[in-house]
Amino acid sequence: MQWIGLEGNMSLLTDMVADRRRLQRTVLLWRAISAIVIVLFVGSLLGKEGMLDRGAYVGLLTVEGVIVDDRKRARAIDALVEDTDLAALIVYVNSPGGSSAASESLYRSLRRLAGEKPVVTVMGGVAASGGYMVALAAERIFARESTVTGSIGVVLEATNFVELMRMAGIGHETLRSGPLKAQPNPLEPMSPAGREMGQGLVEDVHQMFRKIVGERRRLHGERLDYITDGRIFSGTSAYKSGLIDAIGGMTEARAWLKETHGISDKEAERQIETGHSAGFSEWVGAFLIGESDFVGRLALDGLVSVWHPSVSSAP
């Protein structure tokens, strides 16, 4: 009987040891998981701009491709107004333009920032039409001699499939509340009244664009008429015409910030993250610039300010 009792005690002791070991393994596992989580969290903070990486910096905002509405980018720019570490912003523009409303929205967001911080634009290969409107938000504009810019104008395009539908034997009727409702319409020819209305829209937005150019570049009269008729300029001719301030790039922009605002050219640069990722509109934009303007209209609705060299009607 004593032997059985001892055996029972040994069995109980064995179970307790096993339980303790399992508990120790569980504790070690959770400690390891906690350590990994802490390391990842600290790493994310170290890698995230504006958290542990503090100190004065020069921001770099890149505007590339076809300009479309981007609320994340707008919020990122608005946040810069309150960023006490931001010494200045360099806007790199390499864009043929895009939606007139999106270009205007981006311009006005940058103008709000320019009221608080120095803003300078550096043009890439192309900064035309809506891209040039964005560039105008800056206090100083730099471009390369071979930069394509200008193309100050607005387009409203209306493709119709009337003849194609007629060939296919397809009919179409529209019941409307007024003669100008649903004009322009791809399923019917544009009426004279609809064309007049559309032209009025184009002229209204063009006047807005002209006003921005005139105010920002201090141009008026015949000189303003000349540069806002839709023609494009090289960087060299843009400088002579008063559309830009100087020939140069990032180095010259940093030197100007140092000379004018006392911002050291050794100040760290930080890319402004807008949360924007390449998607369908950028894919469409590649077609728009390189091959097919029609495909590009899938991304650009309404009035557009975009330079497209293969389409004669585009500014």
Main features:
315 residues; two-stranded antiparallel sheet; alpha/beta; disordered C terminus; 2-enoyl-CoA Hydratase, Chain A, domain 1; 48% helix; eight-stranded mixed sheet; 16% strand
Describe the structure.
With 315 residues, the chain is α/β, with parallel strands linked by helices. The chain is built from 11 helices and 10 strands. It has 2 domains: 47 residues; 248 residues, 2-enoyl-CoA Hydratase, Chain A, domain 1. The chain is 48% helix and 16% strand. The protein is flat, with a radius of gyration of 30 Å.
How are the SSEs ordered, and which strands pair?
Layout: H1 2-47, E1 57-64, H2 71-81, E2 86-95, E3 97-99, H3 100-114, E4 119-128, H4 130-135, E5 140-143, E6 148-150, H5 162-168, H6 192-217, H7 221-227, E7 232-234, H8 235-241, E8 246-247, H9 250-261, E9 269-271, H10 280-290, H11 293-296, E10 304-306
Parallel strand pairs: 1-2, 1-9, 2-4, 4-5, 4-6, 5-8
Antiparallel strand pairs: 3-10, 6-7
Helix pairs in contact: 2-3
